[in-house]
Amino acid sequence: MKELPKRKQNRISGFDYSAPHAYFITVCTQDRRNLFWQNVGAVIGRPEDVQLSSYGKIAEKAIQSIPEHYNMVCVEKYVVMPDHIHMLLRIKPEENGRPMTAPTIARVVNQTKGVVSKQLGFSVWQKGFYDHVVRTEEDFRDIWQYIEGNPLKWEEDMQQRCTENRRR
């Protein structure tokens, strides 16, 4: 019997993903389907002009409600893109030395994905998600800027693809 290739480990071995840290999360739609924006591919002057589709609004509401379900988790920054979401989440440290149990990042992400899928009536997500443990303030600022600029970058990429397709 042929041995299957070993998958790359997604998480840091031995790391406590319920520890007080900031985490950069990316979750993609199944087959990278463009579900979350209206008029994907239309020329948009500014990222603020993006209109979320009904699916995108459900995803956004689920992201915004994370702190309601997990009081130790703060959504620092997020963006809903046509085929993925980015979130900068922070698990807050314990207050006044009182022990509190924080959920793991995997639990928060998987529950959020589940809420969206349940409301839509079908699963829209790829299996798993990408995470990055934010270790420095510079890393935090870079990720914040990346999330902030992602909608404009998407539009620039779309315009470039359209130009390349016209040349063919």
Discrete helix count: 4
What is the assigned CATH homologous superfamily? Transposase IS200-like
State the domain count. 1
State the low-pLDDT regions, or none.
42-46
Tell me about the largest β-sheet: 4 strands, antiparallel
Largest sheet: spatial strand order: 2-3-1-4
Cα shape: globular
Q: What is the strand tally?
A: 4
- SS content category: alpha+beta
Q: Share of helix among residues?
A: 25-40%
Distance between the termini: 46 Å
* CATH second-level architecture: 2-Layer Sandwich
And the CATH topology? Alpha-Beta Plaits
SSE succession: EHHEEHEH
Give Rg in angstroms. Answer: 18 Å
Overall CATH class: Alpha Beta
Write up this protein.
- With 168 residues, the chain is of the alpha+beta class.
- It has one domain: Alpha-Beta Plaits (2-Layer Sandwich), CATH 3.30.70.
- The protein contains four helices and four strands, in the order βααββαβα.
- It has helices spanning 54-64, 66-69, 105-120, 137-167; strands at residues 22-28, 73-80, 84-91, 130-134.
- The protein has a four-stranded antiparallel sheet.
- α1 runs antiparallel to α3.
